From TrEMBL:
<protein>
    <recommendedName>
        <fullName>ADP-ribosylation factor-like protein 14</fullName>
    </recommendedName>
</protein>
<dbReference type="InterPro" id="IPR024156">
    <property type="entry name" value="Small_GTPase_ARF"/>
</dbReference>
<keyword id="KW-0460">Magnesium</keyword>
<feature type="binding site">
    <location>
        <begin position="20"/>
        <end position="27"/>
    </location>
    <ligand>
        <name>GTP</name>
    </ligand>
</feature>
<keyword id="KW-0342">GTP-binding</keyword>
<comment type="subunit">
    <text>Interacts with ARL14EP.</text>
</comment>
<dbReference type="InterPro" id="IPR005225">
    <property type="entry name" value="Small_GTP-bd"/>
</dbReference>
<feature type="binding site">
    <location>
        <begin position="123"/>
        <end position="126"/>
    </location>
    <ligand>
        <name>GTP</name>
    </ligand>
</feature>
<dbReference type="Pfam" id="PF00025">
    <property type="entry name" value="Arf"/>
</dbReference>
<dbReference type="InterPro" id="IPR027417">
    <property type="entry name" value="P-loop_NTPase"/>
</dbReference>
<dbReference type="GO" id="GO:0005525">
    <property type="term" value="F:GTP binding"/>
</dbReference>
<comment type="function">
    <text>GTPase that recruits MYO1E to MHC class II-containing vesicles via the effector protein ARL14EP and hence controls the movement of these vesicles along the actin cytoskeleton in dendritic cells.</text>
</comment>
<feature type="binding site">
    <location>
        <position position="44"/>
    </location>
    <ligand>
        <name>Mg(2+)</name>
    </ligand>
</feature>
<dbReference type="GO" id="GO:0003924">
    <property type="term" value="F:GTPase activity"/>
</dbReference>
<dbReference type="GO" id="GO:0030010">
    <property type="term" value="P:establishment of cell polarity"/>
</dbReference>
<feature type="binding site">
    <location>
        <position position="27"/>
    </location>
    <ligand>
        <name>Mg(2+)</name>
    </ligand>
</feature>
<dbReference type="InterPro" id="IPR006689">
    <property type="entry name" value="Small_GTPase_ARF/SAR"/>
</dbReference>
């Protein structure tokens, strides 16, 4: 019992939000990261949550929150105590790219997400016409809008797993963890994350 308690006491929990417009591929990505498999998913009404343990003794709890317009109003209920943000973009949906950018910029202005490091996933790279990482970086003006935090843009495909080796090979990749949690390590914060269902009131 003592050894078990000691082992778990060394695991640092981290809360990561996975946000983005509906149909960006968030839930498919979540389950690909968790199970290394592809599942048929429906539009998320509410949220999905999974815990992924890494090789760096960090247990990452990923909150995948629905991206429909009516759900975006409730995103703010999940911001508190977030250690990282994964923002998923459909790289092929040029018609809604501006909407995605606007939502992204609103997130950056929220006080709860101040200085929170970001990984922006340019998803659906397997489809024709997908914008690459450099194009997404320019479109979202990452250098300007994320100058106050650590950030990283990763092209990927949730279906084929392309680009996810940098994020996960059954677990989140340590190099990305270093980028995502650099601020957390510098500040030497240790937050213990409970899993309550957030109140849907901003």
């Amino acid at each position: 019992m003592g050894l078990l308690s000691s082992k778990h006491s060394k695991v640092k929990p981290a809360k990561v939000l996975m946000l983005g417009l509906d149909s960006a591929g968030k839930s498919t990505l979540l389950y690909k990261l968790k199970f290394n498999d592809v599942f048929l998913t429906l539009p998320t009404i509410g949220f999905n949550v999974e815990m992924i343990e890494t090789g760096q003794n960090i247990a990452i709890t990923i909150w995948d929150v629905g991206g429909q317009q009516k759900m975006r109003t409730f995103w703010c209920n999940y911001f508190e105590n977030a250690d990282g943000l994964v923002y998923v973009v459909d790289s092929t949906d040029k018609q809604r790219l501006e909407d995605s950018k606007k939502e992204f910029e609103l997130l950056l202005k929220n006080e709860f997400l101040k200085n929170v490091p970001i990984v922006l996933l340019a998803n659906k790279q397997d489809l024709p016409g997908a914008l690459n990482a450099e194009e997404i970086t320019r479109k979202f003006n990452m250098q300007k809008h994320c100058s106050d935090r650590n950030w990283y843009v990763q092209p990927c495909c949730a279906i084929t797993g392309e680009g996810l080796a940098e994020l996960a090979s059954a677990h989140i990749h340590p190099q990305i963890l270093t980028k995502v949690f650099k601020n957390k390590q510098k500040l030497k914060r240790e937050r213990w994350v409970d899993l309550p269902i957030p109140s849907l009131v901003c």
